[in-house]
Design goal:
Elements (H helix, E strand, L loop, with lengths): L2 H27 L28
Pfam families: MaAIMP_sms (PF16951)
Organism: Leucobacter ruminantium
Protein name: Methionine/alanine import family NSS transporter small subunit
Length: 57
């Protein structure tokens, strides 16, 4: 491998693993959303199904 390829390999690994570490720290400090945006509730009177729709392929 050329030196430039090694530099890019180390840089890419640092970005990927660094993002994993930072996201883990963030989720450890704030594991849940404090408040959801308005409009996310199901309308009254509509049925809510727990199962995904069946797709016939």
């Amino acid at each position: 491998m050329t030196p430039i390829a090694i530099v890019f390999l180390v840089l890419a690994a640092a970005v990927v693993w660094g993002g994993l570490v930072v996201s883990g720290i963030f989720l450890g400090r704030r594991p849940e959303v404090d408040e959801y945006p308005p409009g996310g509730d199901d309308p009254a009177g509509e049925e809510v199904y727990d199962l995904p729709p069946i797709r016939d392929t």
